[in-house]
Amino acid sequence: MPKIKVNGQEIEVPEKSTVIQAFKQAGVDICHYCWHPGLSIAGVCRLCMVQVEGMPKLQIACNTEVKEGMSVNNTSDVVKETVKWGLDFHLINHPLDCPICDQAGECGLQDQYMQFGSYDPEMAEPKVKKSKAVDLGPTVMLDKERCILCSRCVRFTDEVSKTNELGIFNRGDRSEIGTVQGKPLDNNYSLNTVDICPVGALTSKDFRFRQRVWYLKEADSICPGCSTGCSVKVHYNEEGVWRVKPRVNPEVNGHWMCDVGRNTYKYVNLKSRLLSGKVGKRDLWQEVSVEDAVRSAGLKLRETSPDAIAVVYTGQYTNEEYASAFKFFKEELKVKNVFHWLNNPEKVNEFDGLLFRGDRNPNTKGLENAFASFGAKGSWDNLQAGINGRKFKTVIVFGPEDQSVFPDLDEKIKMFSQAENLIWLTACANKSLDSVGGETWQIPVKTYIEKAGSFTNFQGKVQDFKAGTTIVPQALSVSEAVELMAGREINWNLRPRGVGGPKTNYAVSDRGEL
Amino acid sequence: MSLVRKPSAAASWYLPGILAGMWFTFVKMIGNILNPKKMPTLNYPEEKYEYGPRFKGNHVLTVKKDGSIRCTACMLCATACPAQCIKITAAEHDDPTVEKFPISYEIDVLRCVYCGFCEEACPVDAIRMGPEWQTAGLNGSKFAYDIQQLAYRPQLKGGVVSVLDDQERHQAGI
User: In terms of Cα–Cα distance, which of B104, B99, B92, B93 is closest to B144?
Assistant: First the structure.
């Protein structure tokens, strides 16, 4: 492996790597726009200029291969001047409308101007005006003025999604990004172009103007959208979760994620969640505290004979939750009738060739492992027959977190509700659950962003994630619910306090008439 | 530590002190009647004190030449606000040249500390601190100012026009 010197610091880099990769490896900041580690080299922005010892002219770091004994730097005056005035050229036609730009706060131009630019512009000519707020497709908006023509998005649609919707049209300073003959940018990976856009030219319609990025905090998590289990960052504030972005993980998702996975934040937010326990029959249910609901459900479970209990699992919970649930039902209650509710068995093995899989559960593999280690699973026909034949009196369902991926949800609820007692653990509220016939317990549980645990993805790779934020503080994780059902105590001090949702200014809302 | 002083024997005769105080008041009264211009007090509310033009009073949202709101909902004022009394909800405008505008803009003036940071932070001269300072209300909700109050209250006579105009900037090629 060649040894090179980066700004005087000697490092060993892999064979055939480029100078910019060496800079990244050494942890040295280098100005660049068009280079992206997940895409091919274009060399169009000319900003990653470095001085290589022994070469008369400056070279671009992204397209220069390392050589044994090479000594490069980007700290000499000539490099600094070049980068500075290179930035000025990039900003000649840039509108500088940062106040209405969604990228402000995480913008490559803003950051790099502060770090490498800081010049007084010397351009006196009027700017070239292009169209703003161009509708590119169902997910992305384009602002042609802000674009600096780094061609990352064009290369993305060319190389990664292979859909070739985007291109650069016209010449010189009239060049602009566009779609061929108005064909919309409509593929399942289109929002990655927004992520890699170093300026605010491409913005997500879903996130546009909803929050300023500096109000948001980041938490690392695993996408629960399908069995691929992409590493993601979840952006949230005290009002809830606002967007999901990919995190680099070369073993699973590389730099990308699909648009379906980006929608997984929607059901996490307060509007769609179940906020308290619900106990009772059709139209007679009442809202009780979560603790009361889960304790009375546990009482019912322990009263029922083990043969009359059926446990239904979905692949949307963590390995740790499965372990505690299996331990309780299998070893303490001696329940033999456990079932796996797979939402779309015909699509399970589908794969779009890049990331998105037909199995829309994050942890099907983990559930199968749990079944394998704790005991065999029952067939679906047995469950149907058992409920119809009044064999199963109490059915407990570990319901789906993301209900939209369960197309058969309503009909399954109808089927389960034919049993005498139905205990349903769910993160989101569901109208059909409120109107079932038998005695019903609805217990709110946490979503993926509120709990720590691990998912096993389709490869069998176990990926840990931590709790990010709390949306519904009263919701329980399955492990906690199981402890309470067993009649034991949990440590309430470790649980989040307070009420979720937007902060209410009581000084304002409680001001009465004088 | 406070020092406790016993009243002197002379002070226990309170009548001389009262007479001395009344004499002082009488002299001032005569002085004010003979020379009313030197009187330091005002007959509020008939007379009001005029503050300088840089006085930071109640906020004004400026408008464009066509009367629509100038604010672009960049939220820099809300970010700079140390009292966190500004609440803005941005929305997409039908007109693509406007793009982003505030669909609601609320200032809770009872929380506001009148520091003027919002005015300083604003990149488009959309918010200014106005000259008004006499605000009273019977209800707390009177002090949560919305766009209607901030930009189009009757005292502003149709709104204050911002010095920064997008159309002019566009034509100048900025």
Answer: B104
CATH architecture of A3-90: Roll (3.10)
Q: Strand, helix or coil at A87?
A: helix
From chain B, the residues in CB contact with A126 under 8 A are 172-174
Question: Considering the domain B59-171 in this protein, what is its CATH number?
Answer: 3.30.70.3270
Separation in Å, CA A321 to CA A316, A371, A448, A449, A462? 10, 13, 12, 15, 14
Q: Please give chain A's pLDDT, 514 residues, in tens.
A: 899 999 999 999 999 999 999 999 999 999 999 999 999 999 999 999 999 999 999 999 999 999 999 999 999 999 999 999 999 998 888 988 888 899 998 998 899 999 998 888 888 888 888 988 899 999 999 999 999 999 999 999 999 999 999 999 999 889 999 998 888 999 999 999 999 999 999 999 999 999 999 999 999 999 999 999 999 999 998 888 999 999 999 999 999 999 999 998 999 998 899 998 999 887 788 889 998 999 999 999 998 888 899 999 999 999 999 999 999 998 888 888 889 988 888 888 889 889 999 999 999 999 999 988 887 777 788 888 888 888 888 999 998 988 888 888 888 888 888 888 899 999 998 888 887 778 889 999 999 999 999 999 999 999 999 988 888 888 999 999 999 999 888 887 777 765 444 555 555 455 554 4
Crossing angle of helices A290-303 and A478-485, in 10° steps, is 60
Which tokens go with B112? Answer: 């506001």
**DSSP state letter for A122:** -
B140 vs A100: CB contact, 8 Å cut-off? no
Nearest to B91 among A209, A212, A511 (CB): A209
Q: How far is A34 from chain B (nearest CA, A)?
A: 26
Report domain extents, chain A: 3-90, 270-494
Give yes or no for A514 touching B (CB within 8 A).
yes
Task: Please report the ipTM that was assigned to this predicted complex.
Answer: 0.81
Looking at domain A270-494, its CATH class is alpha beta
Query: Domain spans of chain B?
Result: 59-171
Smallest CA–CA distance, residue B133 to chain A, in Å, is 20
Distance CA A65, CA A29 (A): 18
